[in-house]
Design a protein that fits this description.
mainly alpha, about 220 residues, single chain, 10 helices, globular
């Protein structure tokens, strides 16, 4: 394992396409559910312990080397929103391109061949972590961080929120990110059937609404 590889993978500048997605924050801002840093913290905490936990489990399982076909099917079953399923596969395709260029691997090549239209993003992230010499908990940490980091960055752009306050939100959530990563890794160790399936119905509903907007800043 290399700590530097973990930093590269978790870096927001890694060209995996996440900068174009708000993680539901754009719809929440428009609906008035995020107006300031306190609202952002509540939104991120809810996302972290639901979809974040679920995605972290999938990524950790992929990093363990579990069957990617089973994991992709599990991701599909845990993503009821068609808009979010499509976004996850788009992000998976983009991440795969970046991963194969950065950490060439027969496993990544095989995954790309098996899913030409893109595997779900958490599955690709876990496989990428594995190719980079990282462990399951590293993969889970990456997912936990991007689960809250994406919305925080988006809200800075959407509301003109003070970036220092947005960063402080992430810092306050750090212990919870660690907890989610540990839970996800422990579940992944038990196999696909034990993976978390926490959901956030409001995120699913607003994702469908957001996808129908004629004008929007973020893809999802």
């Amino acid at each position: 394992m290399t700590r530097s590889a973990l930093l590269v993978l978790a870096d927001g500048r890694f060209p995996a396409g996440g900068h174009a997605h708000s993680g539901g924050a754009e719809a929440a801002v428009k609906a008035g559910r995020i107006k300031d840093a306190d609202d952002l913290e509540a939104f991120c905490r809810g996302r972290l312990h639901t979809t974040g936990l679920t995605s972290a489990g999938l990524a950790a399982a992929a990093a363990y080397g579990l069957d990617p076909h089973e994991l992709d099917a599990a991701a599909d079953a845990r993503t009821p929103s068609p808009a979010l399923r499509a976004a996850s596969r788009r992000l998976g395709r983009q991440l795969m391109r970046a991963a194969r260029a950065t950490w060439p691997s027969p496993e990544l090549d095989a995954l790309a061949a098996a899913f030409p239209r893109g595997a779900h993003q958490p599955v690709v992230l876990g496989a990428t972590a594995r190719a980079a010499g990282l462990g399951p908990e590293d993969a889970a940490h990456c997912v936990a961080y991007e689960t809250v980091g994406g919305p925080a960055t988006a809200v800075v752009r959407l509301l003109g929120l003070d970036p220092y306050r947005a960063t402080a939100v992430l810092a306050r959530l750090a212990p919870e990110m660690d907890h989610v990563a540990a839970r996800a890794t422990a579940a992944a160790r038990e196999g696909v059937e034990a993976l978390p399936a926490a959901s956030a119905p409001l995120l699913d509903l607003t994702a469908e609404q957001h996808a129908s907007w004629p004008v929007r800043l973020f893809a999802s």
